[in-house]
Amino acid sequence: MSDSENTKGHGQSVPEEDPEHPAHAQSGEQQSQGEPGLTVDDILGTPQSEGVEAADAASSNPDDAAPAGEDAAQKLADERLEDLRRLQAEFVNFKNRTSREKEQLRDFVSGDMITALLPVLDDIEAARKAGDLTDGPFAAIATKLEETLTRQGLERIGDVGQAFDPTVHEAVLQQPTDQVEPDHVSLVLRSGFKIGDRVVRAAQVAVAAQP
To answer: Most buried in the list 18, 51, 77, 113, measured by CB within 10 Å?
Structure first.
């Protein structure tokens, strides 16, 4: 008989217990005693975590989540609509500003052209007052030129009897007279011109005073 085996009973060998593995012996004892494990009731009875409970609550109440999504979509739509309205207002302002600048530019260009023609207009007026343009081809040319400039916005300023206005009249002298009210134009020495609201040249006038 060897040292590693002991005989017991009918000569069967019994292995010696390994002192370095006591857990093996304990597990064998637990299994031999039939200790019960986890049951289905134990698993179902375990408390759920907060994240799982929140997910269950959200999934169980889909009607509560739907209004929040609709409110966010409506807010976004309102913001986009406000952006479009602001862009439309900016475009209208830009269009109006461009139109005004275009009209101002046209007036300035016309004014510069008419300023260059002022000596010609003065000669036409002097010739008409002298009776040299009563008839003939030159009279027709002068009339067509004046009509063309009038269509471009040209307006002659400075008439006898008008109230003196320093923005359109240039006072050259005072004329004592009882034919015209005081501080009114009594004589036009040189006609003035304007295009729209822009005065191209002020009219040189005499202002009536008390005799």
So the answer is: 113
